[in-house]
Design brief:
Structural class: mainly alpha
Number of helices: 4
Oligomer: single chain
Radius of gyration: 13 Å
Strand content: under 5%
Helix content: over 70%
Length: 91
């Protein structure tokens, strides 16, 4: 997969995560929001340690390059929300 596609997928998933997290309970049922997050986490949790590390690195790189503060926030939320910043667990 090319770098452009990887970045597009990462940013799309990060935006989606942020949108779900910032949605009020009266807009989306919390149980449904949790299920969406869990469903998104399954394939990420199945990644190898090397792939998780590469994804975390791409996320950090993209956050550092992002001019839009909302994108930086979304990428940081993605990193922490899916446990990609927990290096000790995967080392």
């Amino acid at each position: 997969m090319g770098e452009v596609v990887e970045r597009a997928l990462l940013e799309s998933l990060a935006w989606l995560l942020m949108a779900i997290n910032k949605t009020d309970d009266d807009e989306v049922d919390p149980d449904i929001a949790v299920r969406w997050m869990e469903d998104a986490a399954v394939p990420l949790g199945a990644l190898s340690r090397a792939d998780r590390t590469a994804l975390a690195e791409l996320c950090r790189e993209r956050a550092a390059e992002a001019e839009d503060p909302s994108m930086r926030e979304a990428l940081q939320m993605f990193l922490t929300g899916f446990g990609l910043d927990d290096d000790e667990e995967y080392e």
